[in-house]
């Protein structure tokens, strides 16, 4: 129910995928300061997600699996640009890292996220991390859907 995560830029010269990634396409039905409603197709499954306002690196997250055909219909109703990416996972120092390689309007962007138990949990950074962007709204997917990376 609570999502606590840190987000980082990836040094593409030092990082290489260690497994086959999973294709993701997602869109936003609502991007309000207090809440975000996202629809996502991730591989062969689909999800509807509601995220609350972020406080520090923590926010409420409710996620529900939905039929893929309904998600496809919802994606057609979404705002602005869809987020297209391939997600890779990697275990580092006991934590699961998710590395997103963006396509489409956000092509060229590489972001890594790690979910934590609490905001003060120690995170051993892999050598391929460049800088933390957890508090920079420009790297939130909901913002990227309206302000694509290729326009920066």
UniProtKB/TrEMBL annotation:
Pfam families: CYTH. Residues 1-146 form the CYTH domain. Transmembrane segments: none annotated. SMART domains: CYTH (SM01118). CDD domains: CYTH-like_CthTTM-like_1. InterPro entries: CYTH-like_dom_sf (IPR033469), CYTH_domain (IPR023577), NeuTTM/CthTTM-like (IPR012042). It comes from the Bacteria. The active site is at residue 28. This is CYTH domain-containing protein. It comes from Draconibacterium aestuarii.
């Amino acid at each position: 129910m609570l999502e606590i995560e840190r987000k980082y830029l990836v040094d593409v010269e030092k990082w290489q995928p260690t497994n086959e990634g999973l294709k993701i396409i997602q869109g936003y039905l609502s991007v309000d300061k207090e809440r975000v409603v996202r629809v996502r197709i991730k591989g062969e499954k689909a999800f509807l997600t509601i995220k609350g306002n972020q406080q520090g690196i923590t926010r409420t997250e409710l996620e529900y699996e939905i039929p893929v055909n309904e998600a496809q219909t919802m994606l057609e109703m979404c705002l602005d640009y869809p987020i297209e990416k391939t997600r890779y996972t990697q275990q580092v120092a006991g934590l699961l890292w998710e590395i997103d390689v963006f396509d489409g309007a956000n092509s060229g962007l590489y972001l890594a996220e790690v979910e934590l138990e609490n905001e003060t949990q120690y995170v051993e950074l892999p050598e391929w991390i460049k800088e933390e962007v957890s508090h920079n709204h420009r790297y939130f997917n909901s913002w990227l859907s309206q302000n694509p990376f290729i326009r920066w």
